[in-house]
Amino acid sequence: MLDPKINIPLDIILETIISVLLLCVGVVLGSQSLKPIQWNVWAGRLERSKEAREIHGVGVGGGNPFASLEERPGFLDIRGRRKDFAEWIRET
């Protein structure tokens, strides 16, 4: 059984505390810069970046990362269709 009155030497305690502090400082200083929290800020930076405009292959890279969601063939733009229909009616 463990004896509850075990004394750890002071140099080991100090060495452990100092090493943990140095480790924390090293991790903080060595980490990358923080990313923006707001999704629209992140997406705007991504769309404006040069890397996002480069096309690396079929379906890889190139502009808006959400273009596939906005331009899906199965998605019907009701307001756009209504506007087109109203213009067609005015012309006839």
Short note summarizing the structure:
This protein is mainly alpha-helical.
In percent, how much strand structure appears in the residues?
Answer: 5-15%
Question: Termini, distance in Å?
Answer: 96 Å
Discrete helix count = 5
Task: Let me know the largest β-sheet.
Answer: 2 strands, antiparallel
Q: Extract low-pLDDT stretches.
A: none
Helical fraction equals 55-70%
Q: Care to count the β-strands?
A: 2
The helix/strand series, from N terminus to C terminus, equals HHHEEHH
Strand order of the largest sheet: 1-2
Molecular structure report:
It is a single chain. The protein has 92 residues and is mainly alpha-helical. The chain has a domain of 56 residues. Helix content is 58%, strand content 5%. Strand 1 and strand 2 form a beta hairpin. The longest helix has 21 residues. The mean pLDDT is 77.
